[in-house]
Hints:
Elements: H1 9-20, E1 24-28, E2 42-44, E3 55-60, E4 65-72, E5 79-86, E6 89-95, E7 101-103, E8 107-114, E9 125-130, E10 136-140, E11 160-164, E12 168-175, E13 183-189, E14 192-197, E15 211-218, E16 228-232, E17 242-247
Amino acid sequence: xxxxxxxxxxxxxxxxxxxxxxxxxxxxxxxxxxxxxxxxxxxxxxxxxxxxxxxxxxxxxxxxxxxxxxxxxxxxxxxxxxxxxxxxxxxxxxxxxxxxxxxxxxxxxxxxxxxxxxxxxxxxxxxxxxxxxxxxxxxxxxxxxxxxxxxxxxxxxxxxxxxxxxxxxxxxxxxxxxxxxxxxxxxxxxxxxxxxxxxxxxxxxxxxxxxxxxxxxxxxxxxxxxxxxxxxxxxxxxxxxxxxxxxx
Length: 248
């Protein structure tokens, strides 16, 4: 299980309040925003994170990448800068957006970090975070077995998911960068996590790109944790549910 070695006490209290509120979804790297991002409570962009950052991480893409979880404004996500590795320690630079007004909510967001060459996903990986207002470290346990990357037409667009903490999931999907998924429901059902994407507004206009979208989902902690996430598209699309293994 990932552990956070440097965390602000106020951040822990806020996260606990979020957890008690029930299932939720939040953005990271362009994912869904459950709260209204047009909220009038805004502040200049300075990353939204404390100097002693609360951090967590989840495996993605069969061990080819990591979803790095930070806490801060849902509208001012950090981007990943330089990534280096020394043995099993990966150092990640996070860069805050500049000259932006940020909502003053405090939620978990995720950024995708490609695992550098030479790092073994079947062994514990230490992650040190630097840059801007971010300082701290976290880790991910080694995978029982690293999953070979997808091949063929779906190689670059395969959805994946990974656990962090007691009931946190980072979900990687692909779609328009301007229209991230918003989840109508996320809940544990037996040995599965059922996640339903809400129907988008009828007048929604989206860019025609096809980009990675990272969503942070929160569910009730269970033991054992479900090993599969069932992703339901909006009913109007008529698509079959997608089954995604949750890495741990």
